[in-house]
């Protein structure tokens, strides 16, 4: 594998990810079944998952992380089964194949919860709270005008992800940039476990997509159901046409003779 000299545990771009002849690598990646998948999921995740799945030297484990939905959808558990089924449909629609890869529902494998319980003994409370991604997520919850309470489950979800990574003996974990701290935590915990108990869990490396995020059709960095600013993989032709026509372009270019700017021009970003 080609590596970044400054951060050898981070591989940036699937073009820099290689498997040596005769080598077999375990890949674990996850998605929360909280809504239908959209173009952003395809660009920064599913496209790469498909490439890895089609490599005979890579064993892919695609985890449907339904436990991780509970900390912000605890009151919507009745919708979770349908959300899991919808996610599998979306995965298969882009070419992921359960005959080639493992589709794993987190709550169906009790060993995930058991290992997570053990791992909580290895992570100091201050270490969990110092995770920069967790801090950002906590600020978002605290800023919402609701009665959201930050639960122990929420604080511990990065540790839960360590269990997800360890159980299938993962070598590679495709993630987004903001989840690199989770991989760093996983490496620290796994080193500690291996040292104390003489185990052989691999130290995982993060695989970062070339396109870390896809801006939404209104130019915002974040998708919102209420704003209707995304294109779902299940969108009809008419829905796609409607969303494309709503894309943010250049408010200063009123006529064809006006000087234009492609900065934050969503159609150009999507074309790229």
Overview of this protein structure:
The chain has 272 residues and is an alpha/beta fold. It is built from eleven helices and six strands. It has helices spanning 39-53, 70-73, 80-93, 110-119, 125-129, 132-143, 152-155, 157-166, 180-197, 237-245, 266-271; strands spanning 10-12, 25-31, 58-64, 102-105, 172-175, 205-208. The protein has a three-stranded parallel β-sheet, with helices on both faces. Helix 9 (180-197) links the parallel strand 5 and strand 6 (205-208). Helix 4 crosses helix 8 (157-166) and helix 8 crosses helix 9 (180-197). 28% of the residues are buried.
Based on the model shown, name its key terms:
11 helices; 3-stranded parallel β-sheet; alpha/beta; single chain; 6 strands; 272 residues
Record the SSE blueprint.
Elements: E1 10-12, E2 25-31, H1 39-53, E3 58-64, H2 70-73, H3 80-93, E4 102-105, H4 110-119, H5 125-129, H6 132-143, H7 152-155, H8 157-166, E5 172-175, H9 180-197, E6 205-208, H10 237-245, H11 266-271
Parallel strand pairs: 1-6, 2-3, 3-4, 5-6
Helices, by number, come to 11
Compute the average pLDDT: 86
The helix fraction, in percent, is 25-40%
Computed CA radius of gyration, to the nearest angstrom: 20 Å
| Element-by-element helix/strand order | EEHEHHEHHHHHEHEHH
| Spatial order of the strands forming the largest sheet | 1-6-5
End-to-end distance = 27 Å
Write down how many β-strands occur, each being a DSSP E stretch of 2 or more residues: 6
Q: Tell the overall outline.
A: globular
What is the compact description of this entry?
The protein is of the alpha/beta class and 272 residues long. 39% of the residues lie in helices and 11% in strands.
């Amino acid at each position: 594998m080609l590596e970044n000299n400054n951060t050898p545990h981070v591989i940036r771009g699937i073009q820099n990810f290689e498997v040596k002849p005769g080598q077999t690598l375990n890949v674990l990646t996850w998605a929360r079944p909280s809504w239908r998948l959209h173009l952003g999921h395809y660009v920064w995740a599913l496209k790469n998952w498909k490439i890895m799945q089609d490599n005979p030297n890579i064993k892919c484990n695609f985890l449907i992380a339904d436990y991780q939905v509970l900390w912000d959808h605890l009151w919507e558990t009745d919708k979770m089964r349908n959300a899991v089924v919808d996610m599998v449909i979306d995965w298969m629609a882009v070419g992921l194949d359960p005959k080639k890869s493992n589709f794993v529902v987190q709550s169906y494998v009790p060993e995930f919860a058991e290992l997570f319980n053990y791992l909580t003994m290895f992570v100091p409370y201050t270490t969990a709270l110092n995770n920069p991604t967790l801090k950002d997520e906590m600020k978002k919850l605290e800023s919402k005008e609701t009665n959201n309470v930050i639960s122990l489950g929420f604080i511990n979800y990065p540790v839960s992800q360590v269990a997800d990574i360890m159980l299938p003996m993962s070598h590679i974990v495709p993630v987004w940039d903001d989840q690199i701290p989770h991989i760093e935590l996983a490496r620290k915990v796994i080193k500690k476990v291996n040292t104390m108990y003489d185990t052989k869990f691999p130290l995982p490396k993060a695989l970062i997509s070339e396109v870390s995020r896809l801006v939404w059709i209104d130019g915002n960095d974040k998708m919102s159901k209420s704003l209707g600013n995304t294109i779902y993989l299940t969108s009809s032709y008419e829905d796609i046409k409607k969303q494309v026509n709503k894309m943010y372009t250049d408010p200063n270019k009123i006529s064809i003779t006006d000087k234009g700017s492609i900065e934050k021009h969503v159609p150009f970003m999507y074309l790229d």
